[in-house]
Amino acid sequence: RIQTDPLYDSSRYDDIWILRFVLSHKKNNADAVDAALKTMRFRHDRKLNELGDIRHKMPNHMSKSQGEKYFNCHRIFSRYCKDNDYVMHTLPDKDRGIITYTMVAKIDFKKVSRSLTDKEWHDIHLYLNEISHQILDATTRRTG
């Protein structure tokens, strides 16, 4: 059913991508197929596939004056943070996962909650997750 879905693109949803669903659903193929189809729809509806490779857009030691590198929602969030080091994402070992350090005391969450729209808050997390998943996808494809 995955390969006959109109959203299926073999260059994007390859065997490794499908295998991850099968393994994460403990080889329950029906559940794995349903989850894969929902994910393809989710990605299509939010235009995530149109973003391309965005690994370089991970907010890290973010300068409030930097513009082009980051998504607008991350630049907006940085307005409510003290200094540029409120968050740090690092990949200390290129063959392992991302480590994120967040200096919670440097973020004014009261202003964030009063100021950010639901869409901005949603986009912050959507894009951070997409960036993280792209980095981890590249790592696991390289390392097995």
Largest sheet: 2 strands, antiparallel
Radius of gyration: 17 Å
SS summary, helix count: 5
Structural class: mainly alpha
Biggest sheet: strand arrangement: 1-2
Strand content: 5-15%
Rounded mean pLDDT is 90
How many strand elements? 2
- Write the H/E string, N to C: HHHEEHH
**Low-confidence spans: pLDDT under 50, at least 5 residues?**
none
Helix content: 40-55%
Kindly report how far apart the N and C termini lie. 26 Å
What is the general shape? globular
Features:
single chain; 144 residues; mainly alpha; two-stranded antiparallel sheet; 2 strands; globular
Walkthrough of the structure:
The protein is mainly alpha-helical. Helix content is 47%, strand content 6%. The chain has helices at residues 15-24, 29-45, 72-78, 109-115, 118-143; strands spanning 87-90, 99-102. A two-stranded antiparallel sheet has the order 1-2. 12% of the residues are buried. The mean pLDDT is 90.
